[in-house]
Fold this protein.
Amino acid sequence: MTDIFCKIIAGEIPSTTIAEGEDWIAIYDIHPKAPVHALVIPKKHVEFQDVDATLAGTLLLGVWEIAQKLGIDKNGFRVMINHGEHGSQEVPHLHLHILGGKKL
Ligand code: AMP
């Protein structure tokens, strides 16, 4: 399955990379819902049901790295995953939203 995040990771669609690890990239959300809105996305196409403990841990460590890099680690932030229809998930490729920069 190919989705917009697969295309971003493949370099077929432009995006602003904040940082990347071996297994993930972090980009700015194109429609920010907070002063700081980043996405941490596994490079491999995975959906929630495919996640293993290693990837879950790696992504959470990526979130903390990005929060520090964007300067929102001290005041705090929200991490969110939308899943499926009731979660209003738009892109069927696992990703973690990081929202911060103000009190939510
Ligand atoms: P969701 O699948 O509901 O968790 O949300 C997908 C998110 O991806 C939304 O917040 C979109 O604004 C964001 N998004 C969609 N296309 C792009 C893109 N090309 N670059 C950055 N963010 C995007």
